């Protein structure tokens, strides 16, 4: 991307600068006309040439507007303007104000190879003016001319080099920015493609999972239920043709036991389909999580303690205790406004107790309606759950003294 | 069994074979009378209010009205009947909502005859029907009683004994350990058994003797 950006301010100066410089040159030259010893003819000539400079400059502007960048027309016009400036400066050194335009517009009007010659020519005009006017008179004046000319050329070369370096740097920066933009676009595209791929991968994984599960189910149905049913049919066919009651009874019992076995297998495979979090974590872990979450939610201090030797409880016992603790904690949060809650799970050989104690407002247990036939929720529901597994539930509370809910259930081990 | 103690039943299941089997089982046994059958939850509510049975045997998964909805509706209507859920799977997701909706208990569909009869009788008398999975294991546990002897005290039991030795009351022990008084008493019962004593004073004495205290 090579698109050197020209600041609009610079364009404005290019258009109007030479006119302004010409005006300054005309005014100063006219003021100094007698001082520099201009003849009347020279004054007329200078006036005519200065007048000619205006359309020349306009032509130069037009040439640049029609074809941006240096071209043959602009180069010809540049040298014409130089010639004009040289003659004017010869007639009156103050026209150097006008001639100086050659310095800053050379790189704009001239092709690259002509820039240095253009600048050197301009330096001749400038050096001439700087020593007080052309031509130099005598060897001292000539020496001065060459020294000043050399200094002009040196400075012009130096500044030109600086300007080119700066332009290269600017171009480099512009290129870097463009490159960054391209990279950004590419990155964005890559990200989008990546997201699409990821989504596709998820779909494939899910489909693969579903397919796997179907295959597993099909295999299980074949291995358990279908085999069992085949066996049952075989046994029942024997019963249909049985010669005596004893034979029939024996085969009926076999059929019945086969059916029971198959049902057990079916239960197990359904169970595997929906693994309970509790089974994976065990009751203490599940309780700990429940208590921690409750503490974070309510902002109250919540401790969980296990005492005795931890054992893996039967799923129904674990589920019951977990539900009771959730219910009790939710009651505490709703009614008691406690600053502290303690949940304690105690393993005691052949039984387990779960205590949920808080330091909240408490209540009068006698004022709470006893368990209704409906079972339902709240204290009644908790008690019903505990009794379902041959356990009991106690509630201890007094207004202002906090509440302790205690479930005491038999320790039934998980023997699966 | 006299006519007064005859237990009337309503059988709710979407499978005619299962209804037929259950009806046959109960009609062949003394003390039960099957008043009717229903094939879904909606029908069950209508039949239950019309027939007023003692016990309803209720399936949970049925097309055209689930068992849990029917139980909830019957509870709301204040129907006298006790509801026993008959289910194929003993998973929480099925049975807990049924219990919460007001069912007295649940049984597995392949429960042996005697277990089924016992559960129905218990339900009719308003007794708790134990979870079948737990009940069978409890029976097993009762058959193999633990030997009371010189079992070591658990950490918590030692804590309780130490507080007892300081003359702390159950109520204060409960406050100290931030547990219920009921559990403190349970700890004491276990502790007494392990130490072979009957009261606090003896427990403290044996505690010192065995070097558990002090």
Automatic annotation (TrEMBL), chain A:
Keywords on record: Kinase, Membrane, Transferase, Transmembrane, Transmembrane helix, Two-component regulatory system
Repeat listed as a keyword: no
GO terms for cellular component: membrane
A GO term for molecular function: phosphorelay sensor kinase activity
Coiled-coil positions: none
A Pfam family: HATPase_c
Keyword Membrane attributed: yes
Transmembrane segments: 20-37, 44-63, 75-102, 114-134, 140-159
Signal sequence range: none
Residue ranges of domain Histidine kinase in the record: 321-413
InterPro entries referenced in this protein's UniProt entry, alphabetically: HATPase_C_sf (IPR036890), HATPase_dom (IPR003594), His_kinase_dom (IPR005467), Sensor_HK_TwoCompSys (IPR050482), Sig_transdc_His_kin_sub3_dim/P (IPR011712), Sig_transdc_His_kinase_ChrS (IPR017205)
Name the record gives this protein: Histidine kinase domain-containing protein
Organism: Streptomyces roseochromogenus subsp. oscitans DS 12.976
Native organism taxonomy: Bacteria, Bacillati, Actinomycetota, Actinomycetes, Kitasatosporales
TrEMBL record, chain B:
Keywords from the UniProt entry: DNA-binding, Phosphoprotein, Transcription, Transcription regulation
Domain HTH luxR-type, residue spans: 146-211
Signal peptide as annotated in the record: none
GO molecular function: DNA binding
Transcription regulation keyword on record: yes
Source organism superkingdom: Bacteria
Keyword GTP-binding set for record: no
Domain Response regulatory stretches: 8-124
Modified residues (4-aspartylphosphate): 59
Pfam families per UniProt: GerE, Response_reg
GO terms of biological process kind: phosphorelay signal transduction system; regulation of DNA-templated transcription
Entries under InterPro entries matching the protein: CheY-like_superfamily, NreC/VraR/RcsB-like_REC, Sig_transdc_resp-reg_C-effctor, Sig_transdc_resp-reg_receiver, Tscrpt_reg_LuxR_C, WalR-like
Protein name, per record: LuxR family transcriptional regulator
């Amino acid at each position: 991307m090579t698109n050197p950006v020209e600041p609009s301010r610079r364009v404005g100066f290019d258009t109007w600068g030479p006119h302004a410089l010409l005006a300054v040159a005309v005014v100063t030259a006219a003021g100094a006309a007698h001082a520099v010893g201009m003849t009347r003819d020279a004054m007329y000539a200078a006036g005519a040439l200065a007048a000619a400079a205006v359309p020349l400059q306009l032509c130069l502007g037009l040439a640049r507007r029609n074809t941006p960048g240096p071209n043959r027309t602009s180069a010809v016009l540049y040298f014409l303007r130089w010639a004009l400036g040289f003659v004017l400066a010869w007639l009156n050194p103050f026209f150097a104000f006008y001639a100086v335009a050659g310095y800053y517009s050379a790189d704009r009007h001239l092709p690259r190879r002509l820039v240095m010659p253009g600048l050197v020519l301009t330096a001749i005009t400038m050096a001439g003016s700087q020593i007080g006017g052309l031509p130099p008179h005598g060897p001292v004046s000539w020496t001065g001319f060459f020294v000043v000319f050399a200094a002009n050329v040196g400075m012009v070369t130096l500044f030109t080099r600086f300007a080119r370096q700066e332009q290269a740097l600017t171009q480099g920066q512009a290129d870097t920015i463009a490159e960054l933009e391209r990279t950004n676009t590419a990155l964005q595209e890559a990200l989008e493609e990546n997201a699409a791929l990821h989504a596709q991968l998820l779909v494939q994984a899910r489909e693969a999972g579903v397919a796997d599960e179907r295959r597993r189910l099909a295999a299980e149905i074949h291995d358990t239920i279908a085999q069992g049913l085949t066996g049952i049919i075989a046994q029942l066919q024997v019963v249909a043709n049985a010669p005596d009651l004893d034979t029939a009874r024996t085969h009926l019992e076999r059929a019945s036991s086969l059916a029971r076995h198959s049902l057990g297998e079916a239960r197990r495979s359904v169970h595997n389909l929906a693994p309970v979090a509790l089974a994976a974590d065990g009751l203490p872990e599940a309780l700990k999580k429940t208590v921690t979450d409750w503490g974070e939610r309510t902002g109250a201090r919540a401790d969980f303690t296990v005492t005795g030797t931890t054992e893996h409880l039967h799923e129904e016992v674990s589920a019951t205790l977990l539900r009771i603790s959730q219910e009790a904690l939710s009651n505490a949060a709703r009614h008691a406004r406690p600053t502290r809650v303690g949940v304690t799970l105690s393993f005691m050989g052949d039984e387990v107790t779960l205590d949920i104690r808080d330091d909240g407002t408490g209540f009068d247990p006698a004022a709470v309606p006893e368990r209704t036939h409906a079972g339902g929720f709240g204290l009644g529901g908790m008690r019903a759950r505990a009794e379902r597994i041959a356990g009991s539930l106690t509630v201890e509370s007094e207004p202002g003294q906090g509440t302790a809910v205690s479930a005491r259930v038999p320790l039934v081990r998980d023997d699966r | 069994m006299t006519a007064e103690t005859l237990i009337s039943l309503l059988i709710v299941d979407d499978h005619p074979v299962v209804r037929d089997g259950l009806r046959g089982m109960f009609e062949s046994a003394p003390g039960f009378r099957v008043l009717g059958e229903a094939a879904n939850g909606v029908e069950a509510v209508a039949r239950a209010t019309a027939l007023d049975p003692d016990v309803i045997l209720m399936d949970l998964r049925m097309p055209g009205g689930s068992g849990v909805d029917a139980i909830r509706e019957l509870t709301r209507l204040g129907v006298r009947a006790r509801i026993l859920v008959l289910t194929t799977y003993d998973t929480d997701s099925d049975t807990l909502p049924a219990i919460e909706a007001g069912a007295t208990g649940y049984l597995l569909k392949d429960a042996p005859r005697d277990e089924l009869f016992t559960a129905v009788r218990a339900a009719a008398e308003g007794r708790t029907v134990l979870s079948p999975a737990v009940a069978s294991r409890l029976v097993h546990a009762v058959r193999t009683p633990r030997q009371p002897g010189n079992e070591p005290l658990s950490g918590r039991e030692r804590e309780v004994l130490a507080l007892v030795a300081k003359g702390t009351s159950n109520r204060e022990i409960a406050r100290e350990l931030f547990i219920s008084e009921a559990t403190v008493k349970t700890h004491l019962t276990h502790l007494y058994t392990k130490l072979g004593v009957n009261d606090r004073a003896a427990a403290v004495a044996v505690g010192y003797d065995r070097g558990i205290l002090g």
